[in-house]
Amino acid sequence: MNIKQLLANKTQDAFIKLGLPAETNPAVTQSTRPEFGDYQINGAMSAAKQLKTNPRQLAEQLVALLALDDLASKVEIAGPGFINVTLKPEWLAGELAKAASDARLGVSANPQPQTVVVDYSAPNLAKEMHVGHLRSTIIGDAVVRTLEFWGDKVIRQNHMGDWGTQFGMLIAHLEDKLAEGVDLESVALADLEDFYRQAKKRFDDEAGFADKSRDYVVKLQSGDAHCQKLWQLFIDTSVKHSNEVYQKLNVTLTDADIKPESAYNPMLQPIVDQLVAAGIAVEDQGALVVFLSELADKEGKPSPFIIQKTGGGFLYATTDLAACQYRSQQLAADRIIIFTDARQALHFKQVELTARKAGLLRADTAYDHCPFGTMMGEDGKPFKTRTGGTVKLAELLEEAVVRADAVVREKSSELSEQEIAEIARKVGIGAVKFADLSKNRTSDYIFSWDAMLAFEGATAPYLQYAYTRVRSILRKAEVADSFQAPIVLTAEQERLLAVKILRFEETLQQVMKDAQPNLLCSYLYELASLFMTFYEACPILRERFNRKVSDSRLMLSILTAKLLRQGLDLLGIEVMERM
Ligand code: ARG
Question: 122 C-alpha vs ligand 1 centroid, how far in Å?
């Protein structure tokens, strides 16, 4: 059920009857204040302008044509022509009954499944995943889960950085280590970070090492077997590390989703040739460059986009052009979504413009780069370890579980050690994820252990706890998930909870459209809060003698529990039966 869509459709039909073009915007929104009812239809004002009539009069005509008597208990015209709609308890109850007997919880069938390629996580290899990789990984995964629940065909693409110049330096260093006779597994690859630092130091300080490294990059990229063998060692080790993190994070990425930069190698030269032949790329100081006047600066100087370096090397940019072609043509993507930090915004604009000019992207493939802000420490600076190093993701997650363990122990006394461990894992990981997912993607946010592990406010522990409370009510009442009874909404708290329950689909649509899981986070928090208000005002177990009332309220509780579980699952956050 999508109430907003339903009202929009009805309004559009009415507009047509009034002689307006079919695409006239009905401007239906959820009401922002209770005195405006549940939904507002705001399209009368601009429609009146088009028809050159009085907006209030048009609103009246519209209300008559809409014939909302079945679903609304009140339809009011306010101000210059706003139409405020308050939904009828009986109608809401009917829709809830449908949702209660539906595995999709009332979310309608996807009328037009799309193929959506989602590029997320994409760590640069030969380094362990650090906090900088968290946002792309979990925001991307939440969007992927939501699209799949909706019924789109999702193709995950983990565009791992496995082909950059850093590999020349790593191979050169590894070669020297091997010559010294060190054992590969134990010394070289056990601590990738450390190994990387050593190589980087030599690259910066040691005469001749940088040249040797550059040599190795060229060799590697032109298929030299020895270099490729050493390179593969780094890749395998890093991928193993990433998989451990994905598993801890409850992220759905697998090896099958890895389509790394190196995979595009054979496509690069032909694409560059094609761009040159088409006159899109031109030579400039030995390099091949696309000059984009669309992105010109204030002085009108076009934005340069280098696709091949002097000396023939390819770049991150070239690989992304190839990725456009592969995804749009081979994978037949209707939409490509890419999650990276905001600093790459210009890069992806350049990629899209160039790819469209060159026909690498089909005209009907949407290309959405979804940027996100930086995770900051409590001092307001980018999040670092106490000694100023980058925070390894695996270590951060371990700390989360340890801290959650303490919080869980404080809260409850009747749990076994095994239960505590399990709950602490879910709460700790859930807290880190929810804290991140609940922020507006595009802004920076401050990472705070205390805030994310609190049982008050919009946090994972609050929602997980709310879920256990509902489940405990259902256990005490001895009803199963499949329990069915008529729903009767009497109290306003019941009605408000009902409206919220029926807004699940609207929320998911918005999450998918804007790639913003924070909207689902807010929805779940509001749902849980409305449930708590309802539960205080409308006793359930104490009313067991008044069976009809109590049964109806149990139905609301079951729906709330199912939605919390489903919604958190779309965020990749686990729930538990008790805590
Ligand atoms: N590896 C890149 C980074 O760590 C992200 C890659 C994103 N995807 C892409 N198609 N460029 O910043």
Answer: 5
Q: Which residue bears the tokens 């930090």?
A: 341
Closest approach atom of ligand 1 to CA 347: 11
Q: Whose CA is closest to atom 5 on ligand 1?
A: 122
Summarize pLDDT for 341-399 with one digit per residue, the tens: 999 999 999 999 999 999 999 999 999 999 999 999 988 888 888 888 888 899 999 99
- Which residue has its alpha carbon closest to ligand 1 atom 12? 340
Inter-CA distances, 51 with 21, 26, 347, Å: 11, 14, 45
Q: Closest ligand 1 atom to the C-alpha of 161?
A: 1
For residue 270, give both structure tokens: 């032909």
The yes/no answer to whether this complex scores an ipTM above 0.90 is yes
What domains lie within the chain, and their CATH numbers? 3-87 (3.30.1360.70), 165-257 (no CATH), 393-571 (1.10.730.10)
| Residues 281-317: b if buried by 16+ CB within 10 A, e if exposed | beeeeebbbbebeeeeeeeeeebebbbbeeeebbbeb
If one residue of 118, 125, 340 were mutated to test the ligand 1 pocket, choosing by the most ligand atoms within 8 A of its CB, it would be 340
Task: Name every protein residue with a CB atom under 6 angstroms from any ligand 1 atom.
Answer: 119, 122-124, 159, 161, 320, 323, 338, 340
Question: Both tokens of residue 341?
Answer: 């930090």
What's the pTM? 0.95
